Amino acid sequence: MHIFERIASRFSYTRKGRKIVCNIITGLFLLLAVITGSMISVLAASFESRGLHNENVIINSELLDVNQMNHFITHEEIPIVDSNNIKIIETYPWPLDGVLTCEYGWRTFDGKREFHGGIDISTGANSPIIAIADGLIECVGIDKKSYGLYILIRHDDGFYSLCAHLANSYVKEGDRVIQGQIIGLEGGGREDPFPGRSSGRHLHFEVR
Question: Which domain, by its residues, includes 59?
Fold first, then answer.
């Protein structure tokens, strides 16, 4: 089931034209979707990033001002709805108390343009990383070419979160974790055993 279908079914949103706002990380980004009959469409991802690109949205990988939204929400299957239909669905804490160093979307890395499927947060040290919600450790693995040492959590609400470029892990596959529990330490530096494809110490974080 698609992530937004899970949101819709969980909160019984079936009214045509209802806009869903999913606040995944407080103050970080919003995922917007609209239910149209039995179909649900992703409209945008809004990345506010603690003051960076405030009130901007990303639609089809293009950064746009939020005031331009209605210009793009004109498809027959996606009726324009007013802000009264907006509802906050979920709120999660940041996994690492650091600075956002790379946003979700297109970027240039090692001289090549590529799509960055998460966000990067850094403190520049081996700082603790927490579970953003209760869940089950789905996998603790090593991807030398990309993520390095990583942890994948299947949360009780149906979402998955991925923490990558870790210095170490305090959990193993099958463990239960609770929101706020320390699961590992920020890594990605040359001193770390499995930094993966990293230019420095940070956390790569994804919500799926």
Answer: 3-85
